[in-house]
Amino acid sequence: MIAAVETPSPQVQRVPLVELRNIHVAFGGVRAVAGVTMDLNAGEVVGVVGGNGAGKTTLMRTLSGARPPDSGQILVNGQPVAIANPRDAKALGIETIYQTLALADNLDAPANVFLGRELMGSSSLNDAAMESATRKVIGRLNPNFKNFKTPVLRLSGGQRQAVAIARAIHFNARALIMDEPTAALGPAETAQVHSLIRQLKSEGIGIFLVSHDIHDVFDLSERISVMYHGRLVGTVNKTDVTTDEVLGMIILGKPPTKLTSQELAELHG
User: What whole-number distance in Å separates Cα of residue 24 and Cα of residue 85?
Assistant: First the structure.
């Protein structure tokens, strides 16, 4: 009797958490984003880089609901969605952590996490429930965080980032847009933020990391999407490129295969 041979099952293709397809945005006669396609998987960091005016911030604003695209499509878990405002984005599990963090400096961590979404008791704010929930969510991110009663103005940059991230993920964010998360931070605080981002990745949260710091991008990203004058130069796997090649993409607007040795050498000239 001849044994049956098992046919190998086809590899299951992973559906991206978020897809931006052929996005166009114009301001007056200026095309800020020209037909850009980009995606993000669960538990992945995609670096979004480019020079000033490259269009990366405008592109991320379309996903956050701050500036709906003029044309193109946004998909979440493979399904087309309409994101007309930030409330739509939040309802889809997409949160933005801006460089300014948008924290209320005079309030403590629990008050910031629940700002605008406060928990109420029978006749007043339920401070105990908000503090308990905040301790739980920040404990996931940074077990050493202890300053729950301190106004966030007096926290370090890394601790302030933890509060801003906690506010996003407590309300079930699955995708985060992080805008220059380590700008103006010292080495120790930068290391803290890197640790926070790695923790988010381990929980399956996808992150678009918008940054001018090429070292941050290489430290944290699996893939890097480079924009130049509103268009996408390309998306590359970090392991397939050098920092010089990515700098060449940013400065010259060319994919690595079209960069010459001389052009790469002149980047340091």
Answer: 17
